[in-house]
Design brief:
Layout: E1 2-4, E2 10-13, E3 24-26, E4 32-46, E5 57-62, E6 67-71, E7 75-94, E8 110-120, E9 130-135, H1 137-140, H2 165-168, H3 175-182, E10 186-191, H4 208-211, E11 214-216, E12 219-220, E13 229-233, H5 242-259, E14 264-268, H6 276-290, E15 294-297, H7 312-331
Parallel strand pairs: 9-10, 9-13, 13-14, 14-15
Antiparallel strand pairs: 1-8, 2-4, 3-8, 4-7, 4-8, 5-6, 5-7, 11-12
């Protein structure tokens, strides 16, 4: 039985554009699909006509088990060893920061058409509280696996620079994803390479205060529930001027609060150590002025400033520290 992406057997998590009945579209890594079915096989269908080569990569996970990596394609088949009830999850793992993920044509998108199985099953709601992560390339998982190198005799050696990113980036190994798993929260990720509160990023993604209310250009956030917690980590791309950084950060907080007036905001200082005191002072003043639930976490000394993009172990360290800090905020 073929079903559309908006069928009761399918649940979307993250920043999905659902205005088109033909396909749901996401450009933020960490966005994912869940499909409930009875049988021993599922087939996922994607529209890849606009996608750039090499294709972005997905993680595929059956019944909460191991993750298996695959390039996106028009059809992806998953076979279970046993006949029965299953839930398959497909996650946008990573691609190239420089693919077009904001303005058409979207060459770095996941365009999910629907799925096929013998008997699709209602999947229901995910009861976990939503935590949204707003950040840059670190939040989206850029260069987590820099040890992936094709030698000069390897056919993959023709995929150099940005074209290797589908192998090197992983949204599911970031501090954000790991933290959500540790605290049993539902992760929504908005991370785009080189974006800051003062500057636009790769693929012409606008600065965070401008881009926050949108999935991508012309697509307002309308899908899904409201985040209970929103964690912001910006600053690695905003080092030129402290005053401009603080002013634009306030603009971002105002924008986030307009869309999520009841959410708890958690401001995490840049891991590279920039503007720690200025950011803490701003958060204190913002809380006093607006009377809102906002917290500051100083993360500037948890990992070395280099490499700028933490490797897997660096992200694990950050997630362990954040789990302690955020648990205290949740329990307060």
């Amino acid at each position: 039985m073929n079903v559309s992406y908006n069928h009761e057997s399918i649940r979307l998590t993250g920043r999905w554009d659902t205005r088109d009945p033909q396909a749901a579209v996401a450009t933020a890594t960490g966005s994912y699909i869940e499909f409930a079915f009875e049988g021993d096989m599922a087939l996922f269908r994607f529209d890849v006509t606009a996608n750039a080569m090499p294709y972005l990569h997905l993680w595929i996970q059956l019944d909460g088990g191991d993750l298996y990596e695959a390039p996106i394609d028009a059809y992806l088949r998953v076979c279970a060893k046993t006949y029965g009830k299953h839930i398959c999850r497909v996650i946008y793992k990573g691609g190239s920061e420089k693919d077009r993920r904001w303005y058409a044509p979207l060459t770095g998108k996941v365009s999910f058409v629907g799925a096929q199985a013998e008997k699709p099953l209602p999947i229901g709601e995910d009861p976990r509280p939503i935590i949204e992560f707003v950040g840059d390339s670190i939040t989206e998982g850029v260069l987590i696996d820099v040890d992936f190198q094709a030698d000069e005799n390897d056919p993959l050696d023709t995929y150099v620079g940005e074209k290797m990113r589908c192998y090197q980036d992983d949204a599911c190994a970031t501090y954000a994803w790991l933290l959500a798993e540790k605290l049993n929260l539902r992760p929504w990720v908005m991370g785009y390479g080189a974006v800051g509160v003062t500057c636009r990023g790769c693929g012409m993604v606008p600065a965070a205060p401008v881009s926050y209310p949108f999935n991508f250009d012309g697509s307002p956030i309308t899908h899904g529930g409201k985040p209970r917690y929103i964690m912001i980590n910006h600053g690695a791309n905003d080092r030129k001027n402290a005053d401009a950084y603080v002013d634009c950060y306030v603009e971002l907080l105002d924008t986030i609060r307009r869309h999520n007036p009841d959410a708890t905001l958690i401001v995490v200082s840049p891991f590279c150590g920039v503007f720690q005191q200025e950011l803490e002072d701003m958060v204190t003043a913002y809380r006093e002025k607006n009377g809102c639930d906002i917290h500051f976490i100083n993360a500037g000394n948890w990992i070395p400033a280099s490499p700028l993009h933490p490797l897997r172990d660096g992200h694990k360290i950050v997630a362990e520290h954040l789990a302690v800090e955020v648990s205290a905020i949740i329990k307060a």
